[in-house]
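Might you be able to review the protein record set out just below?
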Amino acid sequence: MEKSETIDFRDESDVSHRPRPVRPRDSDSPGNGAEASVRRRAREGAEPTPVHQVVQYEPAHSDAVNCVTSLNSDLCVSGGSDQAVVVYDWRVGKVCRCFYGHSKEITKLGCFAGSTWIFSASRDKSVLMWDFTGGPNPIQSFCGHELVVNGVAVSPDGSRLCTGSRDNSMCLWDVESGKCLHRNTISRNLVTHLCWVPGGTSIVQTSEDKTIRVWDSRTWQVTNTFPAKQYIQTHCDVNMNHYYLLSSSNGFGGHGCEATLWDLRQPGCKVVEYRGHVQTTACCVFLPTSIGSPALVASSSHDSSVKIWDQNTAACLFTLALDGSGPLSSLAPCDSSTLLCASYNSGLHQLQVSAGAPPSVREVARF
């Protein structure tokens, strides 16, 4: 199976995607009285400070959005409780493709870098493979798990797919044939997320048993198990130089709710913890690095906030509250200044990250 080339389906003459402004939001952080400040300054005869407008684009989903990932520099892929896999051009605010094939909600997504392949995991126990430039039906299916599939990742060469489930099993598949090559079941290993180490043969996996496991895709055995955290680990991410690992914890009332930085070169070595969320931290990601700027980490939480952290010092540099959005389930860096955030109540949020001193984040669009 050869990799497909990305094709731009945008029609520049199409005006259906022209934005509609929604209620004003402050350019930095909601809730600090930006609108009242404008009115006060106007009464005092001062030049009004412009209030940032959030653009409302065509909605991607009709229900909660559970996951989002980047397909290329212009397109993202999202999955929701409406059972749809949606390819969206976030730069112009337009749906490009919708794929339907799952019988229950989408839980996780994966893409093969440099191609148009999309992998969707679902509560219906299956993983389906789609081609953005192909037809409406899946081009491959991966069936064999006994419970919801919560983890999916494709190998750096695109030949293998790894999946993990609440049935305690991790499976390795041949992408071309859809055949399961290896299956390994570990008691209480209810998989919550997994990621393939960039350019490597290792897979990192989080679990409801509060541990993090590193797998060797060649032997399909666990090579390292990190010390168990106090709370369930919900998500993981590995940076591009494959030295560091992020994991996030569930929790409530500020107990748990942290993200943790680990050193993969020294298994079990906890570097720092990022504390500040007051409900489950559902997602944590490394942000693209900018020359002259500190390395940054982003996290999203069920407390409806996104936080930006200094990767090395664990200092919280900025908090953006997305009021009314409900739990924030997933984050996807798209370029050096754009971060997409999936929410239960208000769809997808396009966030603009400014790597200044200190960094800042503002919401610029919803869809």
